[in-house]
Design goal:
Chain A is mainly β. In chain A, the strands form two sheets. In chain A, strands 2, 4, 5, 6, 9, 10 and 11 form a seven-stranded mixed β-sheet that branches. A four-stranded antiparallel β-sheet of chain A has the order 1-3-8-7, with no helix packed on it. In chain A, strand 9 and strand 10 form a beta hairpin. Chain A is globular, with a radius of gyration of 13 Å. Chain B is mostly beta strands. Helices cover 0% and strands 55% of the residues of chain B. Chain B is built from no helices and eleven strands. In chain B, the strands form two sheets. In chain B, strands 2, 4, 5, 9, 10 and 11 form a six-stranded mixed β-sheet that branches. Chain B has a five-stranded antiparallel β-sheet with strand order 1-3-8-7-6, with no helix packed on it. The radius of gyration of chain B is 13 Å and the shape is globular. The N and C termini of chain B lie far apart (37 Å). Classes of the chains: A mainly beta, B mainly beta.
Chain lengths: 113, 110
């Protein structure tokens, strides 16, 4: 059974903290994505990666960075968390041969106080 | 940038009724996909329709695509309480990235 896992389901952090959100997929997918989801705004792409050590900015990269040192793992980093980064974060992966069909993790609900 | 826009934003029906959701998009696509999201969870892929297809079925799901109108519809027949979820369309805009709409929240009342 294909699987995308995220390190935490719920996370509470304080303003200014450095936050790491981890995503691991076991499908040997080349593509990995980080989205945030907010009420009324839908899913918005933060960053994506088509290969190891490769990253591309999505629509809302400000305040975030990413790391992809291994094919199966894609990390989202909030260098200095702010309250407006309180959101649901979703990781997804896909294969270039899969017609852009994405498999999603369960999500991490991050609250920044 | 948001490309897909679902309509309606929310839909409430009785069990056994059919539910129809619509999606409009703006640019050329390779394919259009529909995803479901149960409350507080990740998205699950439901069905993919290619740009050269007009209709596709999967179980109780029927998807249509009209590329001339840049629109798609998702029909769920004989709805069940377990179909209660948010439904999103996603377009690929000729790349590996997907652009998601804001979703339709479907409530199926027992």
């Amino acid at each position: 059974d294909v699987k995308v896992t995220q390190s935490s389901r719920y996370l509470v952090k304080r303003t200014g903290e450095k936050v790491f959100l981890e995503c691991v997929q076991d499908m040997d997918h080349e593509n990995m994505f980080w989205y945030r989801q907010d009420p009324g705004l839908g899913l918005r792409l933060i960053y994506f990666s088509y290969d190891v050590k490769m990253k591309e900015k999505g629509d809302i990269p400000e305040g975030y960075s990413v790391s992809r040192e291994k094919k199966e793992r894609f990390s989202l980093i909030l260098e200095s968390a702010s309250t407006n980064q309180t959101s649901m974060y979703l990781c997804a992966s896909s294969s270039p041969r899969g017609r852009a069909l994405q498999f999603f993790g369960p999500g991490t609900r991050l609250t920044v106080l | 940038s948001q490309q897909g826009e679902e309509d309606p934003q929310a839909l409430s029906i009785q069990e056994g009724e059919n539910a129809t959701m619509n999606c409009s998009y703006k640019t050329s696509i390779n394919n259009l996909q529909w995803y479901r999201q149960n409350s507080g969870r990740g998205l699950v892929h439901l069905i993919l329709i290619r740009s050269n297809e007009r209709e596709k079925h999967s179980g109780r799901l029927r998807v249509t695509l009209d590329t001339s109108k840049k629109s798609s519809s998702l029909l769920i027949t004989a709805s069940r309480a377990a179909d209660t979820a948010s439904y999103f369309c996603a377009t690929d805009a000729l790349s590996e990235k997907l652009v998601f709409g804001k979703g339709t929240k479907l409530t199926v009342n027992p």
